[in-house]
Every structure is written in structure tokens, then in C-alpha cells.
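Discussion board: Methods & Data

I've been asked by a reviewer to show the raw model output for two of the constructs in my manuscript, not just the figures. I'm not sure how much to include, so I'm pasting the format here to get opinions. Each protein appears as its amino acid sequence followed by a line of C-alpha cells. Is this the kind of thing reviewers expect to see in a supplement, or should I convert it first? Here is construct A:
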Amino acid sequence: MEDKSKISLRDAISIGIGGMVGGGIFAVLGLAVSLAKGGTPVAFLFAGILALITSYSYVNLSKNYPDRGGTVKFINQGFGKTVFSGAINNLLWISYIVMLSLYASAFGSYAPNLWEITHNKTVDFHIYASAIIIIATAINYYSIKVVGEIESYAVIIKLVILLGFIGIGAYGLIGNPNLEQLSISNWENPIQLFAGGMIIFVAYEGFELIANAAPDIDNPQRNIPKAYYFSVLFVIILYIVIAIVTVGSLPFSQIADAQDYVLAEAAKPMLGQVGFTIITIAALISTFSAINASLYGGSKVNYEIAEDDELPHHFLAKLWNQPIGLMITSISTLLLVNLLQLESISTAGSIGFILIFGIVNYVGFKLSKEMQTNKIIPLIGFVLSILALIILINQQIKSNLTGILVSAGIILFCFIVEWFYKKSEKSKQVTS
């Protein structure tokens, strides 16, 4: 008989897919095409392969050390509660904030296409992006149950619309002259393709949310691997097909003009203004649900870090019955989305998560003997993550120095804060 208190395999897969197919694909698809051109599907494949290899480490760590702290607990398991682990866990929290600003940025780009407020797209962007963060914060304070209900409905709605887009779009490709854009002659060089894949890696990061649900998954030894692998493989295929339909439907010049809302623009050749409106609504639902869920997830990560003595215990305090980290996460997101451009946000998010996933892969390698698992796969994941970081940083230094400086500043800030915190805690113990 099924245990109602447990998370079923289907629900666990939904957590993974819902985490990945949030606002990411709507926010970064245009950016991916601008970097990879006709090779955009390959760029998504490169990013997906890294996500799939990393999921092997997550599978084994989730099975052997199930904890609602997820990634935070895995890093502490591998390195103990040190300055390094504390800094990386703080980076995870800030990376959630970066992701939130990416989702809000996508919402702010799509919303004016339905209703212009000031008839100035830049002003409208800031109004919509800020308003959706404030509304989602209010919902998180009002009821966590409502957050869960919104997410469960949103996953179904966005998948139905995206699969419909693929079905109609694939039919519309027949005889479309833009299909020629997918030929190898229109691909960027392999290094540029790989760099493009790493910049939009943020579109895959959500599978790690399965780790937080691991203690509650029914029949964990059998269902945890299936949840990770099925969700990641499904999303890889989904993204590649979406990229094929988009690049095959619109000329590159049109994709560049509509970079921030390209998925809606790609629906026009098949369904006209109706298709544009339907995809815009799907984007707004997806990004809103992603902001809702990520605000909740970000505040939980912050709480777990403080609980593990890697942030001051002030972060365990409650404000209106929710962790104080929720308000800090919300305010930080508002600042980021109104100060940074989309490419800088995407770069900072991708660098943060590639570094974190590289470290999780290293933990998977380091604990492989203890877990009695293959050590070669996590080692490959670690090496690939480091290689991805080098290629991404090298490519972005030339075209997006702001994104690199923001990323470096965030990482340095995490280490400095953690070092000072650990030092002050040590002095307190000595004096007492």
C-alpha cells in the first residue's frame, strides 16, 4: 500500500523537471542563439551532458546521505564545517538570488508584450520585474501551501504549452527556408558552442532540488536514480527540440531583435499573434512559479547554512513566521535585476552553479570508496566543470567583463564573510 506521506517517483520527477523548466529556457534561449547561432541545439546538449554527469554524484550522495539540506549537507559531508564549505554554501544561496533575478528579468521582458504600462519598454521592464518579486514575496509570507499549489499547477501548464509549441512548430518547419540555419556551416566553432552551452547552464540547475526531497522519496534506492536521470534526460531532449524549432522558424536577425522574448516570437510563424500571446502567457506563468519556488528554496538554503553554524544564528530568526533569509533574498533580487543586464546575470548564475556542481562532483569522487560507487564518473564531472569554467570565463572576459567581475566579486565576498564569521566564532569560544 502506498505511503501518502512519501513522495512518489512521479512527484520526484516533477520536482526535477519543474526545477529545470522554470524561467530559464524563456530567459536564455535568445542569448544561446546569439552565441551559438545554428549550433544552439548542440550548446544545449553540451550543458545537458554536464548536468547528466553531475546527476550521478547527486544520485549517490542523495541515497547515502539523504537530508532536506541537499547540496549544503553534501558539501559539509565532503569537507566538514570549514571556511571553504561555508563559503561554497553561501555561494549556493547567492546563486539562488542570481537565478531569481534571471527569472524576474524574463518576466519583465515578456510582460510588456501583453500590456504596456508606460509605452517605454525599459521602464516597463523594471516595473514588471520588481512587481513580480514583491508579489511572490507576499505569497511566500502568506502561505507556503499556496506556493506548493501554484508550482504543481504551473508545471503541468508550462509543459503542455511547450510540448504543444514543439508539436506545431515541428510541423511548421516543413518547407521553412530558415531550416537551413541549422546546417553545420552556420554553427559557431566548437569552443564557442561549448562556451554558449555553459552560459545558459542555468537552464539546467533545478535538478538538484530532488536532493532536498530525498529523505521523503518512496523506495529511495530505486526511485532516487530514476528521478534524477529521467528528469535530466527529458529536459535535455525538450531543450534541444525547442532550440531546433526556434532556429528553424525565424531568421537570425529576427531572433536578435526579439532576444529577450524569442520563444514567443518563434510561435508567430505557425500561429500568428495568438501563438505569440499563448507562449507569452506560458512564460509569465513559468517565471512566476519559478520565482515563487526559488524564493522558498533560497530562504531554506539560508536557514540550513545558519543551522550548520556557517552563518550567524540571526538568520534563524523569523520575520512574520518565515525565516529572515526570505526578506534578505527578496531585497537582494530586487537590487540585482534592476542593476544588471541579462547576460551578466546569466553568466554569474552559470559560474556559481558550475563551480558548486564541480565541488559536488569532487565530493562524489572523494566519498566514492565510502559509498562503494564508481569514482571515474564524478572525477570526469569535476574535470569537465573546471574546464567549463575556464572556457566560459575566457569567452566572457572578451565580451562581458561585467558578468565576470560580478561573479568574482560574489565568490570573494562569500569567502571573506565566512572567514570573518569563523574567526569571530573562534574568538568567542576562546574568551568564554
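Construct B, same format:
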Amino acid sequence: MEKMFLQSGDLTGVTFWLVSMAMIAATVFFLYEGLSVKKEWRLSLLVAGLVTLVAAVHYDYMRDFWVATNQTPVVYRYIDWLITVPLLMIEFFIILRAAGSAVGNGSFVRLLFGTLIMLVFGYMGEAELMNQALAFGLGMVGWAVIIYEIYAGAAGTAAKEAGAAVQSAFSAMRWIVLVGWAIYPAGYIAGVLMEGAVGAESLNQVYNLADFVNKILFGLIIWNLAVKDSEQASH
């Protein structure tokens, strides 16, 4: 698609640009910082960097799509989420393993399963490939599986047995999934089920802000934990 200039009054387009640049900066930061932490945490920071890298590439396309059409880039968003959201879920498993917690592979499978169910049915609903209300309900089942696993399931139980720093980081990450991710189904309800009760401009601004928080802040929490644990190990 040919590059188009961003208009000064296009606030939504501005948010696409800001998030795009922020994802690139976050990628450099996570990959660079991964070189200075304990080897047990390097995979976590690598995954955090991959999340923001994939998001940065897709935001470049989403930004241009919005500027050219002023329409929601549904396909690009879901391709991005289909890659980045499972990676974010894997982070729960990775940090517990890095901290030496006894968490089984079943936790990994349940987190991945819940993520795929949530995203596949979310896309099918927004793309009108099936009944949108039914797709929403099935997608919420996937989210519920994730919430259960990180609060009351094997991952949540393993986190209680970890050190204070891991428990604190794990708790913050859970809040992002519980509260930060609630923005997406709320947007689906307002933009799809309520037939455009919220305009495309407002919906995309909220989605962009949610991606900024849910991806970059998520990675920063892991980075903070990795740095603290590495500093303790060096003393």
C-alpha cells in the first residue's frame, strides 16, 4: 500500500503512529536489557521483545490502513494478536520456570488453548464468519480458561510457592490480563454487538491504548523482576 501523509486532525492516526514507535523502542530496550540479566531470565525478555517486535510490524500496516481508509484494520489486528497474545501467555509459564517453581506442562497447554479459543472466535465474530453473539460467548470461554489458570489453576498455585518478587510480578501481570484485557470484549460489545454504538475512531484509540499497556507494560513488569533477581544473585 502506498504511504499516505497523516493529517493533523486525525487523532486516531496519531495514536497508531505513537504505538508503532513505542513498540519499536520497547523491542530495542527488551533485547538490549536481556543481555545483562541472569540467563534464567533471558528467554523471558526475548519473548517480551518478540511481542513488541511483532506488534511494531503490524502497527506499521495498521497505521497505513487507517490513514488510507479510516476503517478498523480487523485482519491485521487479529494476525498480530494471534502471535503476540499466546507469547504473553507463555510468559506466565516461563517466569515460573525461571524462578524454579514447580509448574507442569499442562498449565502451558491450558493457557495456549484458552488464548486460541478466545482469538479464533473473536475474529470469526468480527469478520462476520459466524453468529457474532455466539462467537463472543465462545471467545469469553477462552478468556475464562486463562483467568482460572492464572488465578486458581496450576499456574496460580505455583506462583504462591515462589518468592516475593515473583509473586508481586505475577500478581501485576494477572491484573493486566483481568482488567487490561477487559477493554477488548468491551470494544467488541460496543463496536459489533451494539452495531457501532462506538465509532471506529474511538474504538481504535482505545484498542491502541490497550495494546500499548498490555504489551509494553507487561514486558516492563518482567524486566523489573529479571533485574531485581539478577542484582540479588550478584551480591
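Answer (T.O., handling editor elsewhere):
This is acceptable in a supplement if you add a one-line summary per construct. For B, something like: The chain has a mean pLDDT of 90.
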